[in-house]
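tl;dr need the bound structure. longer version: we got a ligand (adenosine-5'-diphosphate) that a collaborator sent over and nobodys looked at where it sits. i said id run it. heres the input, straight from their email, havent touched it
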Amino acid sequence: MTAKRIGRITKISGNMVTAAFDSPVMQNEVAFILHGEERLKSEIIRVRGNLAEMQVYEDTGRLRVGEHVEFTGELLSVELGPGMLGQIFDGLQNPLPELAEQCGFFLKRGIYIDPLPESREWQFSPLVQPGDTVRAGDAVGFVEEKLFRHSCMVPFSWEGVFKVDSVANPGVYTKRQPVAHLMDEKGSIHPVFLSQTWPVKIPIRAYAEKLKPTEPLVTKMRLIDSLFPVARGGTYCIPGPFGAGKTVLQQLISRHADADVVVIAACGERAGEVVETIKTFPTLIDPRTHRPLSDRTVIICNTSSMPVAARESSVYTAVTIAEYYRQMGLHVLLLADSTSRWAQAMREMSGRLEEIPGEEAFPAYLESHIASFYERAGLVRLHNGATGSVTIGGAVSPAGGNFEEPVTQATLKVVGAFHGLSRSRSDARRYPAIDPLISWSKYRSIIDEIQRMRGQEILRKGNDVAQMMKVVGEEGTSLPDYIEYLKAEFFDFVYLQQNAFDPVDEATPEDRQIYVFEFIYHILDSNFTFKNKDEALHFFQQLRQVFRGWNSAQWKSEEFRNTEEEIRGLLHERAVSASHA
Ligand SMILES: Nc1ncnc2c1ncn2[C@@H]1O[C@H](COP(=O)(O)OP(=O)(O)O)[C@@H](O)[C@H]1O
Ligand SMILES: [Mg+2]
């Protein structure tokens, strides 16, 4: 242990504190401000001469110039190990329900709770034998945690190759008891524990290689999977005006997406949103496993009343936890809601540092920070050949829904898919309000590419006609144009829109999407002959109604088959070119 390095406060300005030091300090080092019995966590964000400027993760009321600061020599880190699943942490990895129990939702400052309980016992099984060689990120064993075998890994920071000296027998261990001893190349022995710490701002790279994301991550939202897909290990963003449905969409995806683990970084935009999450989250049931959803979820929760620095750190805490599970060969989905809150925290801190502001007073490094956050997503091949992934989806809430602002623009430059919510769609209650005319994806869909493009073409054409009709009225529109419009509306209502309150319609599995899309594709591609617009309108209304019933029918149930027959009957009457056998 090195001697404690101490500094003295020379200036306090909001959550920024400056301290003079004698022995060297590090950028991003964690320091504690000592105020009576209190120890307030902070991080050095700039060093100038012998002055360290620190952002304090706590309320700085009553602090005085001259008080002591203790430098830790460590970067802001999280503890990674079994016991995180089902937890709700704040940005500094304090378990929120426990904190709330101790001091209410208005947190007392200077209280830090062990994120992973010390006394908790885990059933350990070894995976290596003495003499085996291992390196950082390799599993020496596993413990059973809820649905998973939670790998116990060689600390990610250890460099080089190690020889297993001893490994614990199967049995029950706490995080303080070593489960293996490894010998390094020089012959020194190091213990391995069930948990390890990792600095949140540095990506975990204990894998063999990063691969290009190619496999779709099925979310069971038709509009996403079929038209604007997300890839496992890829990135996407959901910008949208306030109240357009970003949070509801993220919640639907968190329940239904085909991911092993979901990490949610929630920066509450509305008062009470966080308290609501803490209360309702433990009661949600996973539609896939019929067990508590919390069994495969970790939530990092911040309210806008928490100090700005704590808010800023939460996305890093979340992505580090996501990377940890990826190291076990799991597919992880990280949902950040909303990244605009994070950007605002960056802006506030930059303002206090009096840095030269960029566009809309955001710091010049806004873009690079956003880029390096999304770069932590990815599909990786581990040393044992298995693959794991982190997929990142970020909601963005630009003021007034104006996508030209810096946060949306910086995000659009780096993500692989864009799901833009539009006010006009949410006002019309067309949910999910992802606007198919502005959204895009660079990833491969579960749908045949030609059909997918044809679907988008129909939507564009329908929109052109709709815009024209606003000017010339329905009478001024030709029958063929009007039919194009009806087709696009039909496609939107029966396929793109999904009823979040219908237990079947809220989530459409991949095979069903492929089946139904193909069916619709043939309808859209058929030549209908109608005597007049009324007849066309009537036909599509009827079709739409039956189709919606189909969407509510259990996949492959008798009701599903019967309704399909009914639809085929309607189409047959219309003498549609029945190429869909
Ligand atoms: N898929 C949906 N189905 C039905 N209602 C929705 C849906 N998405 C959003 N809403 C309605 O819009 C409201 C605001 O949605 P929310 O996700 O909180 O917006 P945002 O996060 O974009 O501000 C919800 O409370 C709900 O009433
Ligand atoms: Mg929201």
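gonna send this back to them w/ a short note. The pocket of magnesium ion (ligand 2) is lined by residues 246-247, 269, 337 (CB under 6 Å).
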